[in-house]
Amino acid sequence: MSIEKVVGVGAGAAGFDPAFERGGTGDGSQLPTTDMVLNIGPQHPATHGVLRLRLTLDGERIAGCEPIVGYMHRGAEKLFEVRDYRQIIVLANRHDWLSAFANELGVVLAVERMMGLEVPVRAVWLRTLLAELNRVLNHLMFLGSYPLELGAITPVFYAFRERETIQGVLEELSGGRMHYMFNRVGGLKEDLPHGWLGRTAAASAAVRKRLPDIENLILGNEIFRARTVGIGKLSPELVAQYGVSGPIARASGVDADLRRDEPYLAYGELHDVLRVITRNDGDCFSRFWVLLEQVKVSLDLVDACLDKLSSMPAGPVNVRLPKILKVPEGQTYAWTESPLGINGYYLVSRGDKTPWRLKLRSASFNNISALPALLPGTMIPDMIAILGSMFFVVGDIDK
């Protein structure tokens, strides 16, 4: 039936747009469509945080994506400028609340480099150990939450069981569950509690033994594979263009890891233990798989650090510093391989007790920046799978 017969008026009559007149194929293929703008977020189950995506849709297919950030912006970089170097640490460990120790580490490494401080060897190995334990905690969160976003409820309980095992030894050491505040300029807050190395070794062994439960539950699941294999392919070219780093970049075949390529802490002595996990497909499944394999590598590094510390004689874990800490005039850039990717700290000092500028390069911001190039052409349900596989923390985007 023609449109004229349905509407009851002829083409060009009042109330009828001639642009809608089509030849009578009857299949609707010639009907005009209009792009629709859909806001995902800032508070939406698919965004796991106050991130807003402004999607332009052609039917159910995404034609364009604009990430709109800043809903959690707390002005951390400006707050750094009015805090002394000891106070900065407590602010810096919060932008990625899943990687607090790694966030602290970047700040103190930058300050120590500017001051020419040599940290005690025991503190160097302890920092390496704690950085890897923090990496395991971060990855376990996403290993549990990502399947949850795709409809799988059970894995999050397995992941949190392992998180609590690691969380227990970190809480015993630092007194904090998420914001450890254990790094200090020149070392660490204090030495280990008696017997802590043994309890940490037991925790590592327990997590390693039970990790196959998560692997078997998810990787072989046909629904999980259908939602992730071949979905959201990120090319190495896009990785380079947007500065994507960490497990997301390595899942696209980019063989880069600062722990190996520009060793810091004790990673230079752990080259025979450290394996850089890569995969070439660059899809959602590959990103999840790399994250899971990196947990195994981090547990290997944890065990190697525990062996080293167990054979090391007792000694200091920090150096004495003046009550008022001033950094010599100058500038430096320190970067670390944080759990979600490269975190960089550009420190500029004018010789005062507060930094003149401390610029933070966070991994999540760059990783999310690739979405406008990654999402167009995909379907709305796939957007949820892709977004979750980018493994970001909103505070790390907004700072």
From TrEMBL:
Reaction(s) catalysed (UniProt annotation): a quinone + NADH + 5 H(+)(in) = a quinol + NAD(+) + 4 H(+)(out)
Assembly description: NDH-1 is composed of 14 different subunits. Subunits NuoB, C, D, E, F, and G constitute the peripheral sector of the complex.
Transmembrane segments: 373-394
InterPro entries reported for this sequence: NADH_Q_OxRdtase_suD (IPR001135), NADH_UbQ_OxRdtase_49kDa_CS (IPR014029), NDH1_su_D/H (IPR022885), NiFe-Hase_large (IPR029014)
Protein's UniProt name: NADH-quinone oxidoreductase subunit D
GO molecular function: NAD binding; NADH dehydrogenase (quinone) (non-electrogenic) activity; quinone binding
Domain of life: Bacteria
Signal sequence segment: none
Membrane topology field: Peripheral membrane protein
EC number(s) given by UniProt: 7.1.1.-
One Pfam family it belongs to: Complex1_49kDa
